[in-house]
Specification:
mainly alpha, single chain, transmembrane helix, 5 helices
Length: 119
């Protein structure tokens, strides 16, 4: 009976410690910043971005900044309209020529907006 109570006490102690750790720790948060989008756009324009990296950044909503979320939605729309997913494996650009030009304009707009906000 003493062994049973000892095992029960140890189990309750371990379960309680795990519950305490889980309740006090918070979930990790990732905040997409303008520099992250600019880096992604630069890599896309240089044909160095993978489809997975593009989808991970562009497919995740940006809830803390409505302006950045608009940029993200515009980039997602560019991928829908001008994307060439099947060509990435061959080392070709993520977007066709028209999409590359629009992405460059979007990148320049975001860069100018970021520079104005930093001043």
């Amino acid at each position: 009976m003493a062994l049973y109570l000892l095992v029960l006490g140890v189990c309750l102690l371990v379960i309680g410690a795990v519950m305490l750790v889980l309740m006090t720790s918070s979930t990790p948060r990732y905040r997409t910043e303008p520099k992250d989008l600019l880096a992604l756009f630069d890599k896309a324009l240089d044909s160095q971005v993978s489809e997975t990296e593009w989808n991970a950044m562009i497919g995740y909503p940006i809830r803390h900044n409505e302006y950045l979320d608009g940029i993200r939605r515009r980039a997602a729309h560019l991928m829908e309209q001008h994307g060439r997913r099947w060509m990435i494996a061959q080392g070709k650009p993520l977007l066709n020529q028209e999409g590359q030009a629009e992405l460059q304009a979007l990148r320049d707009h975001l860069s100018a907006h970021t520079a104005l906000r930093e001043q």
